[in-house]
Amino acid sequence: MSVKVRFAPSPTGVLHIGSVRTALFNWLFARHNNGKFCLRIEDTDKLRSTDENTELIFKILEWLKIDWDGEPVIQSSRIERHKEVAHDLVKYGKAYYCYCSPEELAFKKDECLKKGLPYKYDGKCRNLTEPIPGINPVIRLKANTSGDTSVNDMVQGAVTVNNSQMDDLILLRSDGTPTYMLSVVVDDHDMGITHVIRGDDHLTNTFRQIQIFEACGWDVPTFGHIPLIYGPDGTKLSKRHGAASAIDYMQLGYLPEAIANYLLRLGWSHGDDEIISREDAVKWFDFANVGKSPSRFDIAKLQNLNGRYIRERDNESLFEYMLPFFKYELTDIHKDRILKGLNGLKDRAKTIVELVNSAMIYVQSPTSYDEKCKKYQTELHKSLLKDIATKLESGEFACHEDTLCNQVRAYADSKGVKLVEIAQAMRSALCGCLTSPSVFEIVAILGVKETIQRFNRYQSELLA
User: Angle 290-274-437 (CA atoms, 0-180°, nearest 5)?
Assistant: First the structure.
């Protein structure tokens, strides 16, 4: 059987990082089986759905290189088809018109709550033979209330629910709009979806949807319900744990390949492999290695993984990825300096934002100085910086990393000071902080003129 799966996000909010993992698992399953991965935008909630959120869904999937087959299906464009199915089910005795008012149903629900009983519709209108004039009815499924409904889930295994627990769910509201339950089933059937892969919070919906499939006489797809992603405290991942939406991670400077690799390993494994290429992921992915337990999102692990991917990227492509994060218009000189300095910068960065912030040493003079720099703002340090500037300007000191390091080391010995004293004073002047790549590398990249200008500014503004 050929495989056809779908990712069906709702544009009522920004795309959650857990939904991105669902998309990734669907995509990998399809590509592993030479199948189709379809995208469906479930936008029937017109009050909360926005075009902006729809565009963000496209943007995130494209960023992660999760490509879809064919044109996206827009669920709201298929409402007439959903209505048609609901009325057909009434016609063939699989559904019925219900005239119960919202007030009547609310009263019955309240009575059940008072008695500590679970509420379900009592089927009052199930056997009506004549319409009640003056009332716009809903359409309810005539659910099978005897026996069991079972699903042989790809992740959860065999799960069974007694049909006595299910009621006659609404398929079409009194205003003529279809419910989520009906729309999803009709769309999955019409799109030829063979496997429905989604979060395990949808598992309870599955038994109701199976009854709709069966009432329509349609083949039931194979289901796979993935455990949710939890925060470090064991609760469902949300904003209070930090970033929760996919766009947050893009804006914080995580590389798409790092996000995909990390999400892949949240709930799926291949031996002890941690760094997994897209090609290997497609080759290896199957549901036998998807766990049943929720995964915990560990931001420190993601940062470490992202740092590794940053280090492995070539400097040209890394620079292109960094460009949108700069708040300044870069010149060719800036680009040349940054490219020369990236090897020293990217060893320390865990996100692109961190990398861009550290790369600013090659874009502009420090606009402020860290408190720790005060230790290197004495008259002694002022004198040392002045000597080094003079020697650089005269050519006595070379503007070359290794040579300059040796020359400054010899100069420090002649002055009876430690090399670190001079290096930190230079670093303070050049970077405005005490953490950076080799200060001699920075001088070699900035050049003599820029180095002296920064030394002079540092001394005139802070040491005068």
Answer: 145
Residue length, the chain? 464
Pseudo-torsion of CA 274, 279, 282, 283, nearest 10°? -90
pLDDT in tens, 373-417: 888 888 899 899 999 999 999 999 999 999 999 999 999 999 999
Pick the more confident residue, 115 or 187. Answer: 187
Contact by Cβ (8 Å): 278, 272: no
Instruction: Give SS3 for 336.
Output: helix
Closest CA to 228 of 37, 27, 29, 21: 21
- At 163 the pLDDT is 95
Summary mean pLDDT of the chain = 94
Phi, psi (5° rounding) for residue 389?
A: -60, -45
> What is the pTM for the complete model shown?
0.92
| 384: nearest Cα among 361, 406, 414 | 414
- Residues 259-268: pLDDT tens digits? 999 999 999 9
Using CA atoms, how far apart are residues 146 and 298, in angstroms rounded to an integer? 45
Strand, helix or coil for residue 195: strand
Which residue(s) pair with 268 in the sheet?
290
- The number of CA neighbours under 13 Å toward the Cβ of 284 is 15
Cα–Cα distance between 392 and 448 in angstroms, integer? 6
Burial of 175-192, coded b for 16+ CB within 10 Å and e otherwise, reads: eeebbebbbbbbbbbebe
Positions marked catalytic: 239
CA atoms within 13 A on the CB side of 347: 7
Burial class of residue 113, CB neighbours in 10 A (0-12, 13-18, 19+): exposed
